[in-house]
Write a structure and sequence with these properties.
The protein is of the alpha/beta class and 390 residues long. Helix content is 32%, strand content 27%. The model is unreliable at 365-390 (pLDDT under 50).
């Protein structure tokens, strides 16, 4: 039996990360996690806030990371799952309704697909130049009564759905696919980075209770909000840990290189007080968390997520970030840990997206019940999220 090899490519603003995984041969109950057999890392060039500015530079970066991953894994990479996390990611809510097709009014799988299609059709005129990456049913109602559990098999004269669509700029997706496929690697699908990271950064219990995965990256901060095991909101903010570095440089009048080292705790200085440094850092962190809090207010989830916020990204390592998150959001907060089991080739949370893509790809081998995608297939999210999680 041929080995099942899965590759994830995370093209970030500062690094390209490639993870190559293999599904265990002995997987009797279908619950085994993919094993990482090789990784590749290269400095990103030609990107801004996650989207491609100079295709040739980006191609060289991706090619370098792929070559390294191939060497480390002993595998020739021909296909890959790819993440996109640019500032262009946005959410759109919609509503759909249909009359069940069967004479006895019983809701079928076909009806569920049709009502999601109706909700999608209603937003198409409002999202010009954008591509739908994911379509997520949030809740179904039958004859005005909310369905608790599965709608399939129930009876009624009207089926409705409230849905969430994750979109990005068509051009950003096309540029990414063109660049990677120009290197001879077929792009199987494109996934929003925050969702990919959530596959390995959040537990089943956290998603069920309600939580936020907050990724404070270099140029952007992304959040994905879960409730009742379902992603209910995704948002990208145009501020990140680079802004902390810039604030330190301006506030203390020091070079950017020294400001970055101070932010990471890699150097100290007697020429200014630690109190002043902490004040600068906390002020920027508070600004970031206020943006998140305002978004939670907008979706009516402020102070209502028992599992709190789970922090990741480079900014999650800054001094005082957990305390500032708790105080600003009025929620529990902690830094994330990457649950990779025996996958010792990946040692830190910065690889969450790349490994999450491999987890995603592994689901294809189990059954075709995953998310709505950008290329070739159209898949649904809810049944996927319960797979492979602790």
């Amino acid at each position: 039996m041929a080995e099942h090899i899965i590759t994830g490519i995370d093209v970030g603003t500062y690094h390209v990360k490639v993870a190559v995984a293999r599904m265990p041969k002995n997987n009797p109950n279908g619950q085994a996690k993919p094993e990482i057999i090789g990784t590749g890392l290269a400095e990103s060039r030609g990107l801004k806030s996650g989207y491609i500015m100079h295709e040739a530079d980006v191609a060289r970066s991706i090619k370098s990371a792929i070559a390294q991953a191939e060497k480390n894994s002993g595998v020739t990479i021909k296909r890959a799952h790819v993440a996109i996390g640019s500032i262009g990611l946005e959410e759109t809510y919609s509503h759909g309704e249909i009359i069940p097709a069967r004479a006895d009014s019983e809701v079928t799988t076909s009806d569920l697909e049709k009502v999601m299609q109706d909700s999608e059709d209603r937003i198409m005129d409002h999202i010009p130049n954008r591509r739908i990456l994911h379509n997520i049913p949030l809740r179904h109602t039958i004859d005005g009564t909310e369905v608790l559990g599965r709608a399939q098999g129930l009876k009624g004269t009207k089926l409705e759905v409230d849905s969430l669509f994750i979109t990005t700029y068509e051009q950003h997706v096309n540029d990414l696919i063109k660049t990677i496929e120009g290197l001879g690697v077929y792009v199987e699908d494109v996934i929003a980075s925050p969702l990919a990271a959530s596959f390995v950064m959040l537990s089943k219990a956290q998603k069920r209770a309600g939580c936020i995965l907050t990724n404070i990256g270099a140029e952007t901060t992304s959040i994905v909000v879960f409730e009742d095991s379902t992603p209910i909101s995704l948002k990208i903010f145009p501020t990140g840990s680079n802004d902390i570095t810039n604030d330190i440089a301006l506030g203390l009048r020091i070079p950017l290189e020294d400001a970055e080292k101070l932010k990471r705790g890699a150097m100290t200085s007697a020429t200014f007080s630690k109190k002043r440094l902490d004040e600068i850092i906390q002020e920027r962190l508070k600004t970031i968390f206020l943006l998140i809090d305002n978004h939670l207010k907008k979706i009516k989830r402020d102070g209502l997520l028992p599992a709190g916020t789970i922090l990741t990204g480079g900014g999650a390592n800054v001094s005082g970030v957990v305390e500032t998150a708790k105080a600003t959001l009025e929620l529990p907060a902690r830094t994330a840990t990457l649950d990779i089991g025996k996958n010792i080739k990946i040692k830190d949370a910065s690889w969450a997206v790349a490994y999450g893509l491999c987890m995603w790809g592994a689901s294809d081998m189990e059954e075709a019940t995953t998310i709505g995608l950008v290329k070739h297939t159209k898949r649904n999210v809810l049944s996927w999220f319960s797979q492979f999680l602790p």
